[in-house]
Amino acid sequence: MRYGHFDDERREYVIGQPDTPLPWINYLGTEEYFGIVSNTAGGYSFYRDARLRRLTRYRYNNVPLDSGGRYVYLRDNGSGDFWSPSWQPTRSELDAYECRHGLSYTTIASARGGIRSETLYFVPLRENLEVWRVRVTNERDAAADLSLFSAIEFCLWDAQDDATNYQRNYSTGQVELVDGVIYHKTEYRERRDHFAYFACSEPLAGYDTQRGTFLGPYRGWDRPAAVERGQSFDSVAHGWAPMGSHHVRLSLAPGETREVIFLLGYWENPRDAKFDPPGSQTVNKTLVRPVIERWLTPEAVAGGFAELRASWDSMLAVMQVNSPDTDTDRMVNIWNAYQSMVTFNMSRSASSFESGIGRGMGFRDSNQDLLGFVHIVPERARQRILDIAATQLPTGGAYHQYQPLTKRGNNDIGSGFNDDPLWLITGVAAYLKETGDLSILDEQVPYDNDESAATPLYEHLQRSLRYTLDRLGPHGLPLIGRADWNDCLNLNCFSETPGEPFQTTENKDGGVAESVFIAGLFALAARELAGIAEACDRPADAAEYRSAGEKMAGTIAEHGWDGAWFRRAFDYHGNVIGSGENDEGQIFIEPQGMCIIGGVGVENGMAVQALASVRERLATEHGIVLQQPAYSRYRVELGEISSYPPGYKENAGVFCHTNPWLMIAEAMVGNGDGAFDYYRRINPSARENISELHRCEPYVYAQMIAGKDAPTHGEAKNSWLTGTAAWNYVAITQWILGIRPDFGGLRIDPVLPAAWEGFSASRKFQGITYDITVRKAAGVRGRVRHLMVDGRRVEGNQLPPAPAGSVVRVEAVIEE
């Protein structure tokens, strides 16, 4: 069953009914001001940090799920009938409804009783504000007397404190109205440097800034007293729950359309300035007021929206494909690239499934997110790398997360996730392959943001590799620490006495449990660092790192191979995990993918055997599950992984992040049919027809899909903010379609399904536009042996240098 459809020409997903299985959301903003908006206008806004600079309040795990948002109410003053054009929160019956989620904008249109409305939500480029453009049309034969109400609830900035510290917060909320603009100035007495504002383009018939007054006693957002009676109360918040609402009267002739603009924005004064409160002459008229006045004009809004759309035209033009598969084209050309941008901006911090309070920017997460975004805006990727590296510890270790506002490591979470440092190498390698910008390696970068202890970025990479080599266990495999990629596999948990609470080791190495997965990642990182060393003319370093990677591959072959697949780990007691010796959890997906990507077993047949075991034991119609058999009971020596019911999340769910590793692995051994088969199984567009089962948005990847052991096999959870986005983009564009940046230039090395007869693509790379055509006969399974570059034959599959700004035509033929 579908709840909408793709409009590929406009690059929008069109939702045709409001009661989707879950709120289907979109993201506003691309730079520093961000917001989440659902198909019924639920969501919230924040500046840079979803915890520390939350503008509007939101209630997670509520009923309905997306309660709290950017609400507009319409009221027929003649009949007293009122409704929400976005359906929520009144949930009144609508004669028509349509939500269009586009790239960094959303429009929600509806009709009731002959009144049609359309609300556009977006954040203009370079601005710290959001625009709501409301257009109301009278489709009746007679004139219409209407009232339009806006409504948002202010958050008292720190979302954690806002949701818990009521004894203080009920007395601190402050709002004032100056020249029709609502200013939220809670905290201004202390900080004197930031506030929020809520403005309207029309003269006001009234306003409210106190939630309790606007809603009325014992009422919710579905039946506000001010809307029901058709007149605001002109309330001013002094404590309790500050909000913002404008009341505008509209008299529309038959066929007439009126446009009303609302602005919700954030303002921060210069650090060294001491300004009066927000409504004062200094701030209101000299600083923020000109911004407000500009964006309350239809011309500015139309121009800003056009500029936003044009920016996406430019970014998406870096990579466009035309293949035999519509779902592939739709995801590569639009939605997968878009989701990669969102994950780049958000990491895992703020979605329908992450509150924005508990998590900042993940070290491993952000490095992996670079892989799917670096080609779109490489200059932003460069800065992100430097920000991430500055949180690294002198040991080479890393904070697991850092806060986006302060860019400092999160001490609440700490470090000790021993895969983290190696991801910095993969992120930097991706940037260098895409840009050729070796100068980044010479940038002086501090450790733990201590400017007195800075070294070149290249040394940070060296310390990342050394961190693993300094922490090898009894089998010569890397120590897992608190966890590796799978945060729920906690192998340094143990209980000295059965039935007693578990303990965790606290020594510097985090215990003796070892990870085959980190070993495979090390083999990949060592190869990448060797390539970096060669690119910057350090042959001795390159030889050393290549040797270290080969030695680790040998260790994996000796201790990490179980006969038909790669083992997962060894626990605190030295017991093997992910082996035929185990009664449950015999085979795991992660080492099968990462060891092969790291080059282990590709030449000797181990990789092919491991992939056959995955297909036989882990593959389902809804994707590849994380392990089998699922754990049927809690096991203290394994930690959180066994706390989930079978088939969910890390306990044998389809953890989509890892599925692309198997796509890449299949491509590496030349199996295009297998790689593409796995790609389609979790492709959201390809799953659109089963939206009633999948439940999450059909235009973006989810973190997990319930596995075959679950009663709800095929149901997705945790959409949007997942490493699945970047890795799927890499898998399809760089390995299946085979357009892959490398240290020496762009490679054309597709591994296609046998039934395909080729594809075409346009790829901008280091100032050059490559128009690429790949051809093959149906049924052929092979590789590209040579290229025709502007009519000239080039042996191999790597493109030679070309003049900057040139357009190069490339033809490639896949041969057996």
Automatic annotation (TrEMBL):
Domain of life: Bacteria
Keywords, in A-Z order: Glycosyltransferase, Transferase
Gene3D superfamilies tied to this protein: 1.50.10.10, Glycoside hydrolase, family 65, N-terminal domain, Maltose phosphorylase, domain 3, mpn423 like domain
InterPro entries for the chain: 6-hairpin_glycosidase_sf, 6hp_glycosidase-like_sf, Gal_mutarotase_sf_dom, GH65_N, GH94_catalytic, GH94_Enzymes, Glyco_hydrolase_94_b-supersand
Domain Glycosyl hydrolase 94 supersandwich: residue ranges: 11-273
One of the GO biological process terms: carbohydrate metabolic process
Pfam families: GH94_b-supersand, Glyco_hydro_94
GO molecular function, one term: glycosyltransferase activity
Residue ranges annotated for the Glycosyl hydrolase 94 catalytic domain, each copy included: 312-738
PANTHER family: CELLOBIONIC ACID PHOSPHORYLASE, CELLOBIONIC ACID PHOSPHORYLASE-RELATED
The protein's name in its UniProt record: Cellobiose phosphorylase
Native species: Streptomyces aidingensis
